[in-house]
Design goal:
By secondary structure, the protein is α/β, with parallel strands linked by helices. It has 9 helices and 7 strands, in the order αβαβαβαβαβαβααβα. The chain has a single domain, classed as Spore Coat Polysaccharide Biosynthesis Protein SpsA, Chain A, CATH 3.90.550. α6 runs parallel beside α9.
Length: 243
């Protein structure tokens, strides 16, 4: 890949020296947020140590707290839904914005402190150096038991839907996707099922899927997928892909 190394260096630069990463204008970090006043400020402070504010979009999913007010203090891009559309709806809004504004890649990043901005250079490097269409983080470390059971069940379901013999941590929210791939996806699910839907659509589009290892961080164990939401996701996926 002649020239690819210099291409990567344009994205990944001086992170160890505390300088802002010089990512080109064609990568957008999308942060879906719903009632995140407790965490969104710290999340954006972390991101701004690595990513320029013009490359960040917060999708405020009709929060009832001060999430939007806090976001505006940081000068990043923000879109606010008038009604709650769920995680899937918020991500689709971010994807649409990225496509319409000429971005080549989207990085999805949780608003609640479960992701670290220092992972961004790693996922960019992995994606660009391996020509990946879709790269996501596999969480390493201790899981709350209820989440572990739910995630294992959904990973098994993913193997059934995709025909792949092995799938790991399909519910991870830290991912980098090319907008070329996103244009070809048929995304419909509004809530947490979007994580599985994105991967299924990637497989159906013959995308090159890559992974990186990331730390498992659970600040609020009651948030995210659990056994109950896992059954809801199963129902949504079966309704879309089997019925």
């Amino acid at each position: 890949m002649m020239g690819n190394e210099s291409h990567i260096l344009k994205y990944v630069n001086c992170i160890n020296y505390g300088k802002i990463m010089k990512i080109q204008k064609d990568i957008l970090v999308v942060v879906p947020a719903y009632n995140e006043e407790k965490y969104i400020g710290k999340t954006l402070e972390d991101l701004l140590n690595v990513v320029p504010k013009q490359n960040i979009l917060v999708v405020n999913d009709a929060s009832k707290d001060k999430t939007e007010d806090i976001v505006k203090q940081y000068g990043v891009n923000v879109i606010t839904h008038q009604t709650n559309k769920g995680l899937g709806g918020a991500l689709r809004t971010g994807f649409k914005y990225a496509i319409e504004n000429g971005y080549s890649y989207v990085i999805t990043f949780d608003a609640d402190g479960q992701h670290k901005a220092e992972w961004i250079p790693k996922i960019i490097d992995k994606t660009l150096s391996n020509n990946c269409d879709f790269t996501y983080g596999i969480r390493k470390g201790e899981y709350p038991l209820i989440k572990l059971i739910g995630n294992i069940g959904l990973d098994i379901l993913m193997m059934m839907f995709t025909g792949l013999k092995f799938f790991r941590d399909s519910q991870s929210g830290f991912r980098m996707i090319s907008t070329k791939l996103l244009r070809n996806m048929n995304l419909q699910i509004d809530r947490y099922g979007i994580s599985s839907e994105l991967l299924i659509e990637a497989v159906r589009n013959n995308a090159k899927i890559c992974t990186i290892d990331i730390e498992a961080i659970y600040i609020d164990p009651n948030k995210g997928t659990n056994i109950r939401s896992g059954f809801r996701i199963m129902k949504e996926l079966i309704s879309k892909y089997w019925i």
